[in-house]
Task: inverse folding
């Protein structure tokens, strides 16, 4: 099933150098085989303190670097990532279980976002405010300081690279904490591009929940950002409260795709399948369209088509270029998904595709893409985020009841609306509580548009100018001239 492409650096990375940790090492397993593929150093309190100290010193130097020089360095970093595309994608496929083709796409996205934020170098602008004769008033933006970015297991390389770019371009230093389950590509990123920045500007610390808590509570860290579950986001907010950190959260979703009676059924079904991100992350996606609301006039044929489409997606070796879908990334996630499949059956949902584990892949965390029909809004599978290859299909007939069901969850990240009637589309867009809405499309992100959610799907917006500006503070300056 594959081995490490090249030997990884040893230790944790901070202050422009590698350091061995005195803490216990973390074993890294391949979820597709169950075999241990590496051991990585885990950062303890000593390493955290040293990293924050180095990041603080490096940030002071970087903040004085002119924007165009920051841009040049970030573009060089993006070029380095692109140059090592195959190796980085293989590392992600190896320790996350995502398909190689999906992880190659992740590298492309990472490079694109790094280049995008590099291009925004001169957009951290101030303003003047008229306040009367004999006075000048202006506003400038300054970096917040040291930023901690905690990234999850589903897009290890892409999130590490995309999330370091905005705060660094704003003049901050960054400490990246990858998931302890999938740290390999982040280590490689530190090796490839860490030396391009002044020492302390880019730091990578491996570790588990204790390290995450340490980053969230450390008084020397000004801002903490998390991509993860709602439970993780709530924990980080509590931990960050005592030091009143800036907090940015991109959390989970229980996202709806709604088919109206006049929807193009073939395209809508294709979009529902696409929106689950099966070939990309085996459905481990916060933005996945995991609830499909189908008008009663279309229900039976749509269920049949969704079942056939899911049955056609075959899981396999993540490192094979021909694999359509990999496996789940962790034992915990595998057990969770299998548990929700059992819960759905016990609650009366009708499984029309998938559900089982392919016998030839029983050594890994593989689950076939699964579709449940006859799901009702009160079922747990319709309320709670599964974060796996499980799709729920719900029948609707009354518009007001539909909107109540779509909005009747804790989340509000994405939604997809399918209709040929623009008036109906706009009415639904207005009524659905979600931060990112597609009409006759799903899943696609568009560069520069703000991505983020409402309710327990998070705080803040990413992939846009606003993300970079969120890592700055506004300073107002008022000057009175002598008479």
Result:
């Amino acid at each position: 099933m594959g081995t490490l492409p090249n030997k990884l650096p040893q230790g944790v990375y901070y202050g422009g150098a590698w350091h061995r940790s005195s803490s216990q090492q973390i074993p890294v397993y391949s979820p597709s085989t169950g075999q241990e593929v590496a051991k990585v150093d885990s950062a303890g309190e000593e390493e955290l303190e040293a990293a924050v100290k180095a990041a603080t010193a490096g940030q002071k130097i970087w903040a004085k670097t002119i924007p165009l020089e920051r841009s040049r360095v970030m573009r060089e970093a993006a070029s380095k990532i692109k140059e090592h595309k195959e190796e980085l994608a293989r590392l992600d496929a190896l320790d996350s279980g995502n398909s190689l083709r999906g992880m190659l796409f992740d590298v492309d996205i990472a490079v694109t976002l790094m280049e995008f934020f590099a291009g925004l170098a001169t957009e951290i602008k101030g303003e003047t405010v008229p306040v009367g004769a004999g006075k000048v008033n202006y506003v400038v933006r300054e970096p917040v300081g040291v930023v901690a970015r905690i990234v999850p297991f589903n897009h290890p390389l892409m999130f590490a690279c995309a999330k370091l770019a905005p705060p660094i371009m704003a003049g901050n230093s960054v400490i990246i904490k990858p998931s302890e389950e999938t740290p390999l590509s982040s280590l490689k990123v530190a090796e490839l591009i860490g030396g391009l920045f002044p020492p302390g500007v880019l730091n990578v610390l491996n570790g588990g929940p204790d390290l995450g808590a340490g980053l969230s509570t450390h008084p020397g860290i000004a801002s903490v950002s998390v991509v993860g579950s709602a439970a993780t986001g709530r924990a980080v907010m509590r931990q960050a409260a005592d030091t009143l950190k800036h907090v940015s959260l991109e959390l989970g979703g229980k996202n709806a795709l709604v088919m109206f009676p006049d929807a193009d059924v073939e395209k809508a079904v294709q979009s529902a399948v696409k929106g689950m991100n099966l070939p990309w992350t085996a459905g481990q996606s916060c933005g996945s369209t995991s609830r499909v609301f189908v008008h009663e006039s279309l229900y039976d044929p749509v269920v049949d088509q969704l079942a056939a489409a899911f049955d056609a997606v075959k899981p396999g070796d993540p490192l094979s270029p021909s694999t359509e879908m990999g496996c789940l990334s962790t034992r915990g996630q595998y057990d969770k998904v299998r548990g929700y499949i059992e819960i759905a059956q016990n609650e009366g949902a009708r499984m029309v595709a998938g559900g089982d584990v392919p016998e030839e892949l029983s050594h890994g965390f593989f689950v076939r893409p699964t579709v449940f029909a006859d799901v009702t809004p009160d079922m747990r599978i319709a309320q709670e985020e599964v974060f796996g290859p499980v799709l729920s299909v719900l029948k609707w007939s009354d518009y007001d009841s539909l909107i109540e069901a779509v909005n009747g969850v804790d989340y509000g990240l994405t939604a997809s609306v399918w209709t040929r009637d623009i008036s109906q589309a706009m009415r639904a867009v207005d009524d659905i509580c979600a931060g990112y809405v597609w009409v006759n499309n799903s899943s696609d992100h568009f560069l520069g548009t703000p991505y983020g959610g409402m309710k327990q799907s998070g705080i803040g917006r990413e992939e846009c100018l606003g993300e970079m500006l969120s890592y700055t503070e506004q300073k107002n300056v008022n000057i009175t001239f002598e008479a």
